[in-house]
Amino acid sequence: MGDGGTPVTRTPDGAGSPYAPHDDAETAAMLSAVGVDSTEELFDVPESVRFDGDFGIEPRSERAVREEVAAMLGRNDDLVELLGRGHYDHYVPSLVDHISQRAEFLTSYTQYQPEIAQGFLQVLFEYQSLFVELTGLEIVNCSMYDAATALGEAATLADRVRSASGHRVLVPEQLRAERRDVLENYVSGTDLVVEPYPMADGNADRESLADLLDEDAVMVYAETPTVRGTIEEGLSELADLAHDQDALFCLGSDPVALSLLEEPASVGADVVVGDASVLGLPASYGMGLGLFATREEYVRQVPGRLVGASDDADGRRAYTLTLQTREQHIRKERATSNICTNQAWVALRTAIHAAWLGPSGLVEEAERAVTQARDLAARLDAVSGVDAPVNDRHHFREFVARTDRPADDVAAKLVDRGFAVHAIDDHELQICATDHDEATLDEFVAAVEEVLEQ
Amino acid sequence: MGDGGTPVTRTPDGAGSPYAPHDDAETAAMLSAVGVDSTEELFDVPESVRFDGDFGIEPRSERAVREEVAAMLGRNDDLVELLGRGHYDHYVPSLVDHISQRAEFLTSYTQYQPEIAQGFLQVLFEYQSLFVELTGLEIVNCSMYDAATALGEAATLADRVRSASGHRVLVPEQLRAERRDVLENYVSGTDLVVEPYPMADGNADRESLADLLDEDAVMVYAETPTVRGTIEEGLSELADLAHDQDALFCLGSDPVALSLLEEPASVGADVVVGDASVLGLPASYGMGLGLFATREEYVRQVPGRLVGASDDADGRRAYTLTLQTREQHIRKERATSNICTNQAWVALRTAIHAAWLGPSGLVEEAERAVTQARDLAARLDAVSGVDAPVNDRHHFREFVARTDRPADDVAAKLVDRGFAVHAIDDHELQICATDHDEATLDEFVAAVEEVLEQ
Amino acid sequence: IYEPLLSEKDETTVDIGANAADESSDDADSSPLPDDLTRDELTLPELSEPELARHYTRLSQMTYGVDSGPYPLGSCTMKYNPKFTEDVAALSDAAVHPDRPERRQQGSLELLHRLQDYLGRIGGMDAVSLQPPAGAAGEFTGILVARAYHEHNGEGHRNEVIVPESAHGTNFASAALGGYDVVELPGGEDGRVDLDALSGALSENTAALMLTNPNTLGLFERDIEEIAEMVHDVGGLLYYDGANLNALLGRARPGDMGFDVMHYNVHKTFATPHGGGGPGAGPIGVAEKLVPFLPAPRVRTGEMGYERFEPEHSIGKVHGFDGNWLVLVKAYAYIARLGDAGLADASAKAVLNANYLAEQIDLDVPYGPFHHEFVASAGDRDAAEVAKRMLDYGVHPPTTKWPEIVPEALMTEPTEIESKDSLDQLAAAFDAVAADDAEAMAEAPTRTAARRIDQTAAARDLRLSWQTLDSD
Amino acid sequence: IYEPLLSEKDETTVDIGANAADESSDDADSSPLPDDLTRDELTLPELSEPELARHYTRLSQMTYGVDSGPYPLGSCTMKYNPKFTEDVAALSDAAVHPDRPERRQQGSLELLHRLQDYLGRIGGMDAVSLQPPAGAAGEFTGILVARAYHEHNGEGHRNEVIVPESAHGTNFASAALGGYDVVELPGGEDGRVDLDALSGALSENTAALMLTNPNTLGLFERDIEEIAEMVHDVGGLLYYDGANLNALLGRARPGDMGFDVMHYNVHKTFATPHGGGGPGAGPIGVAEKLVPFLPAPRVRTGEMGYERFEPEHSIGKVHGFDGNWLVLVKAYAYIARLGDAGLADASAKAVLNANYLAEQIDLDVPYGPFHHEFVASAGDRDAAEVAKRMLDYGVHPPTTKWPEIVPEALMTEPTEIESKDSLDQLAAAFDAVAADDAEAMAEAPTRTAARRIDQTAAARDLRLSWQTLDSD
């Protein structure tokens, strides 16, 4: 019956790849040129390990696959997500989709031949420059996988660059668990150990941290905003504490927050990591873009790719990957990282989104993230049975609310009303607002009232 | 509240076009260069006709407009449409969308400077060539608005090229009413009159047509498939009847049907018109693409644009618009048509879709249109209270079914079950199947049974 | 840069009857139709998706669009086409059949109703029909409406439509297609309508005067009220060609100037993409007295919601369905995005840009003051050669050799989307060409995908399909 | 062709505190945060959408992708990326947060579960984790799993991972990141693993041997069963680098060959776009004994539907969430489109293409028989210069100077997407370059957007942001 589709294949038995262009005559001519009778003869695979079964995967038409996946993902119920904790939904302007779908960008490979990759290289150079401005640090690579792996790479960088040996990586006790898990794995091949330091009312407990720090510390990590959405208030002091022990100070943040908050370099950050895909991607089931920025002095220890400006034979400015001798394909086991395929296309999207917003739009977004969280918390605080925010801090996008009733139960009832929030503790919900419009937040507050009144 | 959007404008009062790049400093510099203090001074509009009201149209953010239109169009209920009668839904492969969205194609203008428009010109040249193959006629223009306006242009062409004067344009009595209405308007500035000729069991009644024809006939129009989905069986005879009176024979068809059915040139068609967007566009609320093909001898009387091959200064093949002296921008009131803006981008989509299918896919689609209509009619015929097809003809995509119960009522009840069909007469439904899958058609047949049993 | 034709990449012949899709039938090789109804074979390129993707990607790269750079084609209003309007038009709920029951297409009808309303407000017209699929179709429709009006009033004898010589070619052709004799009106010395000439042209046979305002020289017809009065005094109607409406948004409305009927070029004023020549949309707006004659159907609100209806004395139809729907959706989205202030700013910046550019270039620019466009003169150069040479500077040239009132005309409309930098670069291109020597001009273009193309040969030795090409 | 940097087009400084979004507050000019928490200002380009659209459109045109032409980068598997997979990944239902309740993300979990299943069948592995976001991440994950397995078995002393010299550089780096000493295994004379050398390298300290099969010369390791036995005999594990899996689909499965752990490069074998360097995805598959050590979470069916779970001895996490979701969606769509027969045909045509191309070119191509790729030698030419000169013929050159076992290597993998015509053109480019004189080589490329770029200067005088550039 009608499928509106091209035949699955051009091979006569209806069983081939639609993306292999060979017709029978061409295949025959090529086999003849190679001197064999069939493609099967070309497989130099001993009989004993030949696979003669099948995978049991039926081919489907393009249309059928589109409908199948649409139906399948349709089983992700419609929900208003007030979710964050490291992954954020933002409206992405159409320009980002249209440009990033251009085949030249989408289907190109790493820029090993810069003369025919100037466009992508320039975008990556601009991406680097954007984050040089946002972080104040001189070196930005053109992407890690996500915030968690970037943090892992930061720790191994700290291990490499620190003059004295040391073992301890200090991280906030309140940290997305998965982020810490990834860090643990990244340092598992080294002598480093990850240790938590206490928090006080959502932010780093500086006194406790000071007590914990000694010369064995290699890196101190802090976040702003924190996993609970609070804005860290003592960054310079944290940096000083780290530097006093010759440890690196690594800061986790994101490009929207960095548009408004103190410049990391100016507070003493040696490395900035984070998820840059808060611009560029909508909620993507956790897929991200690892930001990695550091000081110029560590440039030869940086993981990942760097794009530099140079000149071409005509003396015109041109861009190229540079310092590739740090990388695995040249330096093998002595590389600064094993990363090869990265998130370049997401970086391109992030760069376009940031350019579309411009500095005014970035600052506006950031200020909205502050005021919207503040206002929403205040509205929830007015609901009987809710205290919000739990932490007496400034917040960014999200905040923790205490509920008299069990948080799990409240969250479940909110889901039944179409709203997803985090239940992070017995009586703690975490709530994140990004681009939600006022009407939606009104409905959410009403739903919370309804649930709490039951 | 959060809108994820750039400010509506870059002008300080928040009220400008987001697509005008001027910042205040640039505007000031430009005003100064021009020698005025404000843009308002540039409007040389007498006070008495100055508009000082407002339109009352609120600007919205990009995101708000997307959501608004999505919500609005969401009020088009989900229905399985078994609708045709001149407009057809087909699955359009992703390639068509991705390529046709490329900015170079989408945002370019008519190819008045061919040296920087070779790509689009070549696509249009290939479009013309596709239809030269499908129609057997030598001349294909690169688009009219739709089938109806192409038919109107065919009549005025017939009027221009016929050696003797004459007035009558004969069209099937069974014809989509709107198509005839447009034709009437197109000939309303000429001496032509449109007259119907009778049909017999869905096809042209050749005897009656022969009786109607005389030397005053300028053009005879026939369609295959007809508006009722029947395949016309006596095209050569119809052409002979027309030619006997020195009238042109104009055939209406479409690219899928033409892939299987007799070549129009070989049956004597002088002009072929039709809706080519059955490839290239999904159901688009009636938006189409007017096919127009004719014999070489009429090339200087053809309406619309023609792309020809030529050479450039280096002797390489190049493409250009040609015979522009036929057109309105040069010939003014003596032009062959007033058409200027046409449907070039739809033609590009149609050309890509056809290329994606290839000849095998085109023939397969066409054969499916025959067998699917035949099989569906047979299944409905087995339902008590339904006779299908009403016409004892081969059908293409669609057919008419007679219902014992009033057709309006049956159609309304089917809509309540999620299926839209045409009710074309008191006891006649018309049903069209294009890319519907088997399960959908099963459900449809079951719905018909249910409705008829009530 | 050269990309072979699809036919040069593959040619596959499918025998009809040997490819039956219905493999469940008894004879899998037979066509479902008798031989006498089918062709014997079909020969076309059969290529895979990767080959096609490359073919069309390369061809696109040999095509210059608004997103490539400045595109100051006079009277064509090559504005930036906002990307989001494409996403709006691609909504799956937009992909419906117009014959579904009205109750089940309330979304589409609402959008059309709102757009009718918006356009009416913007043009100052009492009612709008969205059906005409292009500007010229709008003109033709307007002419039919005017004719129906006259005939309804027993004035069917009116057989003349007056068109200024500087008008768009479509005006002449549309009036002729509507059955009218075209009376060409010579321009006045100031580039505007000469009232004396108009007076001489007007008569009891005048059905309408078609006017573009500002006209193709970018000049506002300052005497528009007097013109309207003169036309109306002889019983004629005043037609507004909307091609240049981008010059006036929020500053003046055709309805307020006395125009009785107008068309809108949504692909110009409202930024829907030109798509290499189309589709556009050419809705028409009319004053009260012409409303009953509009094409059918229009959309109104009724008891059951939005509904279609046929105006009392409707001229019938000018498109097989409801016009270029997808284009109308994009136009709605654009207008909604900009709103009052955005539309007004678009005109302000379009007019500023034209005046600034006219000021910057070294060429002679007669007439003025300009609105959205101006016509420079190439002087003793051939304007067409100037245009070819401009291609070498990476910009699209203006419209050339028209209007003829300016010798070797370069009709230039930058629109509001060009920045000052961009205009400065465009001016530099103008000036560089003006300084180039004759040889450079004759050789131009040299930096394009194709060199100068032989137009004469193309028209003399017609090769309009790959079937006509020698295999070379 | 030159496109200025965004920073060269505009530079706008926003003072923090002067731009508060909350205009309803008492002081519209104040920031919502105290001064000591905010920066003073932010300086970045502020450009309009039309300017940005042109900027990026132009930059895209200065970039060569698979849709531009042949892209035979060895070991990179630059296949055509079917357009429809983009539309599938763009479905709005794909845009969800992973922390929503499992009951409310059944669609995403089902897709992941199905993909786990598909990949397991294709690789012959007992279980699959989709979490690693790239091939190298998959390698690292596999190494961690192997290490956890050994440690669980009290064999934590094993500290060596053996890697053939011709292996991808990531193998070395991933093993090192996992804390292992890398033992480099010299290649045999036939380009394959030398069993004697392997025997010498294996010991009780061997944690794993990492192998690519077919290897980077395109040669199948015919002794794979013996290799597996040798590795297993010393208690080591056999790791399969999936970079070259496109050579074997449906013909042989790593699991059947004795591999204990493998990664899949979905951006190679399963045609998800490379995106200028990523994102990809590097799922890993393991044999039964390693299943308990896989990263958490995995997806299984439970009573309530699909659910996440943590394997008993899970190594934990290698990505903050669930990996590169959008890439996984595209990979699922590709596999579903092709099915068994399509996947098998992809390998057949990939291998045919490599062998045909190797046959067509004039250069020396040592070793063989080839599967999906071959390594030609530029002989007395510099392979890097050959590559630069190939750019002038409009194609992307092969990977150069690697593997080092072939002097001046040109590692070439055309994949199945090239037609015979395309391969013939590619061969012509190889041969034309081989015939070019030294001057042409030294000058190359001359027909590209940029001429030869000075790599030394780039590394010596680091300019890694627009902030470092002199305003020139």
What does this structure look like?
The complex is a heterotetramer, with two copies of chain A (454 residues) and two copies of chain C (472 residues). Residues 1-13 of chain A have low confidence and may be disordered. Chain A has helices spanning 24-34, 62-73, 94-100, 103-106, 118-135, 147-161, 177-186, 206-212, 235-244, 255-260, 264-267, 328-331, 344-381, 407-416, 438-453, and strands spanning 80-81, 139-140, 168-172, 193-197, 199-200, 203-204, 217-223, 248-253, 271-275, 290-294, 306-311, 317-322, 386-387, 398-403, 419-420, 422-425, 428-432. Chain A has a seven-stranded mixed β-sheet with strand order 2-10-9-8-7-3-4, with helices on both faces. By secondary structure, chain A is α/β, with parallel strands linked by helices. Chain C is α/β, with parallel strands linked by helices and 472 residues long. Chain C is built from 15 helices and 14 strands. Chain C has helices at residues 6-9, 49-61, 83-89, 106-123, 135-152, 169-177, 195-201, 224-233, 254-257, 266-269, 325-360, 383-391, 420-435, 438-443, 455-460; strands at 12-15, 41-44, 127-129, 160-164, 181-185, 206-212, 237-242, 261-264, 284-286, 298-302, 305-309, 374-377, 399-400, 409-412. In chain C, helix 4 packs parallel to helix 11 and helix 5 packs across helix 6. The interface between A and C is medium-sized, with 14 and 15 residues. Chains A, B: It catalyses: N(6)-[(R)-lipoyl]-L-lysyl-[glycine-cleavage complex H protein] + glycine + H(+) = N(6)-[(R)-S(8)-aminomethyldihydrolipoyl]-L-lysyl-[glycine-cleavage complex H protein] + CO2. Chains A, B: Residues 19-443 form the Glycine cleavage system P-protein N-terminal domain. Chains A, B: GO terms for molecular function: glycine dehydrogenase (decarboxylating) activity. Chains A, B: Its EC number is 1.4.4.2.
